[in-house]
Amino acid sequence: MSNDNNRSRRKFIQQTAIAGAGLALAEPLQVFAQANNKMAINQNIKSRGYAGKDVAGKMAPWNFERRAVGDNDILIEIKYSGICHSDIHTIKGHWGPQKYPQVPGHEIAGIVTAVGKNVTKFKVGDQAGVGCMVNSCMQCDSCKSGEEHHCEAGGMVGTYGTPEVSSPTGITQGGYANNVVVTEHFAIKIPKNIELKYAAPLLCAGITTYSPMMKVKFKKGDKIGVIGIGGLGHMAVKLAVSKGAEV
Ligand SMILES: [Zn+2]
Ligand SMILES: [Zn+2]
Fold this sequence. Notes:
6-stranded antiparallel sheet; 2 domains; Quinone Oxidoreductase, Chain A, domain 1; globular; binds zinc ion
């Protein structure tokens, strides 16, 4: 990573008021309060997040709305959102023109506060996470074989910045916010014995290293080299060590 990139990342993180590896959302969680008072989940959900307004990438508080909680959706009160360098690249338009305001964040960990009537995987109070995608066609061969990220019908719907008709802002909005509405299929159940602050970075950096490492099928005692100890690299080291490899 160049010094310029380092500086840019540090500035971005400072602007987003983040301490340590994750973003603790300290704002009073209005939606949670509403949930406790039998909030209406059949209308748009009020949300508050940090959004980029243009390619400058300066993050600022923003009030917006999420879609109502549909029959297959869950509402998550976000407790932590990790920071991925993709957040910075996307908001700054490095990977193509963006729609703004846009709330980044695809390492989301929180508590389920409402569930749609068809939801079977979650109940209110469960710990849940969301990674880098929130929808796909669910009909094509890739989607049917658990490879939704390779969806052949227009691709997966990214957690932020992807045009989405159901989103009141016209695009998906990510995890630097106090809540998220997501189809249960694209939410991950986080076991109670994992603290949410440790779970959040697993939702992108973790799975991005875990998946290829498991595909390689290394054995206990195998030697593994990791190039670059960054957000992903340190995960690779930890995963390899936990599986008995020599790093
Ligand atoms: Zn990421
Ligand atoms: Zn598909």
